[in-house]
Design a protein that fits this description.
448 residues, Transferase, Pyrimidine Nucleoside Phosphorylase, Chain A, domain 3, Pyrimidine Nucleoside Phosphorylase, Chain A, domain 2, Aldehyde Oxidoreductase, domain 3, 3 domains, 4-stranded antiparallel beta sheet, 17 helices, globular
Amino acid sequence: MPIKEFNTVSLIRKKREGGVLSREEIQYLIRAYTDDEIPDYQMSAFLMASFLNGLNTGEAAALTHSMLHSGIVADLSHVKGTKVDKHSTGGVGDKLSLILAPIVAACGVPVPMISGRGLGHTGGTLDKLESIPGFTVDVTLDRYKEILEKQNLVLVGQTEEIAPADKRLYALRDVTATVESIPLIAGSIMSKKLAEGIDALVLDVKFGSGAFMKKHEDAVKLAETLVGIGEEFGKETIAYLTNMEQPLGNAVGNWLEVKESIDCLNGGGPDDVMEITHLLAGTMIYLGREAATIEEGIEKSHEAIKNGSAMQKWIDIVEEQGGDTGVIIKPESYPAAKHIESVKAEQGGCITAMDAYAMGMVSVELGAGRRAKEDDVDPAAGFILHKKIGDKVEKDETIATLHTNNRNMLATAKTGIQQAMTIGQSAPETLRQITHRADKHGLHKYEG
């Protein structure tokens, strides 16, 4: 059925004046832009009008639908089970996908996971995976389906066939100061996730200094918008709001985070990482119909770690996607960075606050992220935190260990870590890791 034609200027004016666009009008704009019938300057005007005046749930769903169907939607009907994925809005030290994906797959739920690269101060799952020698994240759609059917899990990047309109719009948003729009963010996330062929979705929406949503209320709006879009498409969707006022876990940097993930899958790992991991994994297991309740799903998540099935699934998927399982089994065999140096506390007291954003930028300076899109990432670069908020520290005690192959960045990075930590004399209030859950029934305070 041909898409109805509209006057582009009239649609921009309508949105500029606070009007609501119909599904057909949005469909026309996205299709015409993807087909190069609308130039960048007109789409930029539409994006800015949407940024300033917002999009309602219907418009956001229509935008998602149009971007979703600009490419191929994977048909995973041949894969048995309820397919469930997880998406995080991004944070510093967030390596949860590497841990929960094998847990959930080991519990019988198929996990088709298409991930992204690092963006700004936040690390990307693909960069972490590619720090494993030989691991391939670029596969065809047919190979994507093959891996999922064989392993119950696949960890790849966005293919050219998946939501091409989103890829073009995102590039335009990045240079027109419209990235932070909640409905535009939601449409971008959901178009890619729905294109994977999933049946249900769990979302980790982060707030705080290390997140894209700094304010809790903005994170709530994003979570509710994402859930609303998911439900609009008939996909059961549950979102959790989680704290990113400090890095998640102790390791920040690609291989360093993979190594910490291995520790977690072997039954160790930091408590803050495992609390959120088990909650998200348990919810995925519940949505995947392998548990009657989220609580039962959490129990199964713990059991998959305890009985070794999650770790075995991780080894299996690394091998399946061409990675070196030797460094997974013996992480100490991985080549270390040339320069490893300690950062000392300048005074004694108690860690009262952290600037997670600044710490994320330190990891970028060390080589773990990109300043420009075309930059290479150093897989061994990053840092290990030895102190977190609430911990006591003595003067000259080691608070972090830097890893880099660029000696010239060590002095700047040391100063950056010291300035990103606030040391006071009294203990701060305990941070709540998880504050709320959003689902089709609304927003609920998390009591776990």
